Write the structure tokens for this entry.
Amino acid sequence: MDFGVYIFPTDFSIHPAELAREAEARDFAGLLVPEHTHIPASRESAWPGGGDLPTEYSHSLDPFVALTAAAAVTKRLQVGTGICLVVERDPIVLAKEVASLDFVSGGRFLFGIGGGWNREEMENHGTDYTQRWTLLRERIEAMKAIWTEDEATYHGKFVNFDRIWSWPKPARKPHPPVIVGGNGERTLQRVVRYGDEWMPLGRGDQSFGPRIKELQELAAQAGRSPIPVSVFGSPSKPGMLEQHQTDGVSRIYFPLPPADREKVLPRLDRLVALVREFNGA
Amino acid sequence: MEYGIMMFPSDFSMPPGDFARAVEERGFESVLFPEHTHIPASRKTPFPAGGELPQIYSHGMDPFVALTAAAVATTRLRIGTGVCLVVERDPITLAKQVASLDLVSGGRFLFGIGGGWNREEMEDHGTDYATRWTLLRERVEAMQAIWTQDEATYHGQFVNFDRIWSWPKPVQKPHPPILVGGNGARTLQRVVRYGDEWMPIARPGLTFGDRIKELQDLSAKAGRGPIPVSMFYLSSTPKSVEEHQREGVSRLVMAVNSAGADEVLPRLDRLAALVRRFEGN
């Protein structure tokens, strides 16, 4: 099991390039950033986290800009979305953004994706909330066609194009891992259908053992090998880390506060100590 | 006169960060990267420059990824799009990308925009060629609202949203300069209506004195000050540089082929020598 961190990069937090350098210097394996293209002021959709929506949700940087800055100043650190709102983005543009970032980072991009929860936010991008999972699947399939074929064609219910050219292709073959986020009932089926990894949200002391077992059974039935699992957010307790490891989790991402370096760097150091304790060093 | 360099970064060119550093080291003011989200294989729309479409058009990187890499590798260089195909991008997402890049670069972004010429390319993004200029204007106006207002609302024929929150705001106030590209009959009206600068393409034998005068007359009638003119400059001879300066051009952007360092660096050296000769030092 290895460890990464995630942060909302904002106009009031540490520069993503500086954070990336500091995370790599401390041997973290990956840095993830989430995405909200904007937040509708109406706030009709309840935040799944409960209570008021934290300020960073409306202040987050575009993930591809933040992650390119992170990748440009590092050599080994993986950089990824956690998660990218594919239903709010044009798949032809997004395919090129992913491929370009994977190319400039030398194959270090992790493509975390999710369905989103903010109905008004996706409606401002023309997306019907009730159709979002079909739209998400079609866009992923369309992007895979663009990444892997010299001349890509895709026809679905929502996504349609004929014979298009788009390079660069991603550095990682066939494409960066598509990491499906979410804890919902049908998430595991989606992971097996079009994902390469699963990334549930860590919730308190919840163990993912039974669902990981179910995931691997579904994978085996589909003729696939075991699917890696990362947990997005975990309590910083050695006991919980051991639980996740026993359950078959291969990577844990710890949250960092969307704050300046004076707050973020000590937090990184405490996480290093926690990981060291967990590893028995 | 300011001097900029344009190159289309690709999977066969110098990496955009290394390229930008080389441009900054040679004393140039800016780097511009163009955009094509993809190229439809049908190639029904003829290439405006005539003949076959060069391979680079389908191999160009996403400009926001490439420009972020360029920004992180440099400290003074202005970085910009030349041009961004606004009619192929979602304005809420694009507003955030522009603002994020302006933040990450410390206010160095130049937002070159254009209407595009490839009808099938824009159709793959759901854009009707016949109404592209209205769409472009509405998207620019919508982004200006997002950049400058805490709670932005926009209602047009194509772009509609109510009361949205989006930070970061750009570092440059009120927003990065919008350089409207193009040589068409109605371009100058567009520059005065929603642009901050004009960016025509120089062609052999074409002089711009009359049109720049017309632009400044239109600007004065609209109660605006003189509008800066940047020019894509394709035929590098010292004589025409001088001529363009007399016409009132304030930035010349010179093109470099998308190629490796062994070809690009000597070309940059020659262009730097040309600039020194012209500036008389």
Observations:
- Residues 261-279 of chain B form the longest helix (19 residues).
